[in-house]
Amino acid sequence: MSDIPVPRAATEESRIVRLVLILLAVGGLAILVAAPLIAVFAQALSDGGRAAVASLAQPDAWEAIRLTLIVAAVSVPVNAIFGIAAAWAITKFDFPGKTVLITLIDLPFSVSPVVAGLCFVLLFGSHSLLGSWLIGNGYPIVFALPGIILATVFVTFPFVARELIPVMIEQGRAEEEAALTLGASGWRVLRTVTLPNIRWALLYGVLLCNARAMGEFGAVAVVSGKIRGETATMPITIEMMYNEYLSVAAFSMAALLALLALVTLAIKSLLEWRYADQLAATRRH
Question: In CATH, what is the architecture of 49-283?
Answer without folding.
Answer: Orthogonal Bundle (1.10)
